[in-house]
Specification:
This protein is α+β, with helices and mostly antiparallel strands. Helices cover 52% and strands 14% of the residues. The strands form two sheets. A five-stranded mixed sheet has the order 1-2-5-4-3. Strands 6-7 form a two-stranded antiparallel sheet.
Length: 203
């Protein structure tokens, strides 16, 4: 099941691939989640870059500064490119710290799985109740059900980055989620997932 229109997601991913050929960046947000989960595609593109890359992008694209949300933006028509920078943007974890926890995924540089999960929890905290918040919830669950998710590492990162409140919100989401039809998870499957995750968090 697709959350966004398939034509728009294809257009977005094509644009993302063209950016990869021209610029160095860390891919975050929904497209980074998709590279891990292969479940729900994204619409908007979210990247972390350095200021020299921002200067290069400005040579060919109209880049708007969003002071309120501490990011830069490119309006690409049916979707947006949200650009985050060190010492300016708020993504839950300092950009310089995120750089220490990156991996290669299908030609892209992305945050390590558990770091991306924390970033998604932060985004969801600020967008709960909105359409984007609903997509955040699906992204969170699609990462949480991955067999390679390291819950021990996750607990260590919660402590390192003071994410206790966000973890409590995740546990509440986990307990209140009966099924996730968008991910093909029925009530029985969700019950098993919930039990396994709660056991991992209590170790």
């Amino acid at each position: 099941m697709e959350f966004y229109n398939d034509l728009i997601t294809r257009e977005s991913f094509t644009y993302l691939q063209s950016m990869r050929k021209k610029y160095d960046f860390i891919l975050i947000g929904g497209w980074a989640v998709y590279l891990y989960s292969k479940s729900l595609k994204s619409k908007d593109i979210d990247i972390i870059i350095d200021y020299d890359v921002l200067a290069k992008i400005k040579e060919t694209d109209e880049v708007l500064k969003n002071e309120r949300l501490n990011k830069y933006e490119i309006n690409a028509g049916h979707f947006d490119v949200d650009i985050y920078l060190p010492y300016f943007s708020r993504v839950g974890i300092e950009v310089e710290e995120i750089k220490k926890f990156t991996v290669g995924k299908e030609g892209f540089i992305v945050p390590a799985l558990e770091i991306l999960f924390l970033m998604k929890l932060f985004a969801w905290h600020n967008r709960r109740g909105s359409a984007k918040g609903q997509k955040d919830e699906l992204d969170i669950m699609s990462l949480a059900i991955l067999p390679e998710f390291d819950w021990k590492k996750y607990l260590e990162l919660i402590s390192k980055f003071s994410f206790s409140q966000f973890n409590e919100e995740f546990i509440a989401l986990l307990k209140n989620t009966r099924s996730v039809k968008e991910l093909g998870v029925n009530e029985q499957g969700m019950s098993k997932i919930r039990k396994n995750i709660m056991m991992s968090l209590e170790k």
